[in-house]
Amino acid sequence: MEKITLEHIKTYLTGLQQTICTQLEQIDGKAKFVDDTWERVEGGGGLSKVIQNGTIFEKGGVNFSHVHGALPDVLKSESRDAQYFHATGVSIVLHPIHPFVPIIHMNVRYFCMSDEANGQIKDEWFGGGIDLSPAYPNEVDTLHLHRTLKDVCDTFDTSYYPTFKKWCDEYFTIKHRNEMRGVGGIFYDHLRPENEKEKAKLFSFMQAVGNSFIPIYQEIVQKNRAKSYSQQHKQWQFIRRGRYAEFNLVYDRGTHFGLRTNGRIESILMSLPPHAEWKYNFTPDENTEEFQTLPFFQPKHWV
Amino acid sequence: MEKITLEHIKTYLTGLQQTICTQLEQIDGKAKFVDDTWERVEGGGGLSKVIQNGTIFEKGGVNFSHVHGALPDVLKSESRDAQYFHATGVSIVLHPIHPFVPIIHMNVRYFCMSDEANGQIKDEWFGGGIDLSPAYPNEVDTLHLHRTLKDVCDTFDTSYYPTFKKWCDEYFTIKHRNEMRGVGGIFYDHLRPENEKEKAKLFSFMQAVGNSFIPIYQEIVQKNRAKSYSQQHKQWQFIRRGRYAEFNLVYDRGTHFGLRTNGRIESILMSLPPHAEWKYNFTPDENTEEFQTLPFFQPKHWV
Lengths: 303, 303
What we know:
The structure is a homodimer. Chain A starts with 5 loop residues before the first helix and ends in a 10-residue tail after the last helix. In chain A, a hairpin with a 4-residue loop joins strand 1 and strand 2. Chain A is globular, with a radius of gyration of 19 Å. The first copy, chain A, is of the alpha+beta class. Chain A contains eight helices and ten strands. At the A-B interface, helix 5, helix 7 and strand 10 of A face helix 5, helix 7 and strand 10 of B.
């Protein structure tokens, strides 16, 4: 069995980025991704691919990055005496125009630490996940999301889906509101391979998650894109986008890690909605469509 | 000299809230403040006064609160063995509709710690400040703000203005963007009286700051409210409001303190703009009005 290297992982990730962008452009039918390469002074950089003002996508990004360098202080407690790190991954956030087409987020990442730039690995892990944030969740889409993710997980380990689904529900909770930012999905982090065989398995799992993105999202976009909607639906979408911004700015670890380690601001904050609203003490009236969305933002057993 | 008590401070603060609301209603001419009282399970509560959809004010709040109870863990490091705290203050944030009328923020607060609910005070301090966040800063308004605040400060201590002005510039910096959220003002915290005389002085200073709010803001509103503006001006206002939300959600200590200590969410997040936008990698072109605002968001000696 071939040993999995950082280069293998990067090759997969850059290919994934390209494939997903091509397919999202086909889904959108109008807007094209624009490339934006950037370098990090301390080492590494990335390629942000950004889409704006499409027929489906109001704003979105599919970002690849590989940053490396001296281990930042914020990570030293986990360091096992390592001095150098590499982090590589693909991050996606898409904000659709249509209030019935959900925001989707995906991230797959690999992190390793060593004594020196290309020294022996002292610690390494995989992380990632896919989750959906509809303004108007429905059962069909939510089941499709969770079933697909469960199938992906079960191929590797039947404990994965229940564990990572729960982790996702907890991670993406806006604690001060006691509600999730969306309907969940899966989230996992610090999956540490103990040997080369496990590393190969975790790399395959990364690929299975990455490759499930388009099958999951394409169906959901197509099912909802033609529905008619009103100004009231847009209004609720803006409120839910405000919650999305709240979560990302107050709680998201990736965002805070990026802001504290001199990450590229625009690539990190690409996740923020194009347009969000906050009304004072807004709660939907009972018997409205909006009121019926609220139970979806609480953890629930789906599959 | 009469000893200053928590009751004296609360009496001033509730009166200040009422006076400011009456005057803001006169300035707006249409919208009225709506009262919203709330209680904190662990002790205390507040009165939020909220204005929405006025001729001048799109969204704003003038909040009084007095919360008390067992000292939360997040404060225990500062506790000098005290077990009980009281915190009282008035907080204001106003988001005007007009892109040339600035967002204003004021807070004056008093904090004390003791062994038991009404026990002897073991530690106490005053904090507060006023700062302005215009989308289109101009020299006249910025000078008026800083001159008025310097006059207020100089009556008490000539070291106050330079110290608190610098503190404000630093505190209200969006670190990841290396820019201030506005044009500053004053900010101070942990002003600890060593004796009753100093406590009386600090309470007078609190009153002087609180009483300067209307004189500062009224003039700025009146000077700008009749200017004509375009969609481009609204656009930049939305971008600057996005920065305001970024600051408050990522950095503001008051916001994080409130979210972590089971504060009243809607009163804390009342500070968020009614409507904000994030564009990918947006920087104004040179030779535009927007480009000319950028130097104002860097610290500058005003008076």
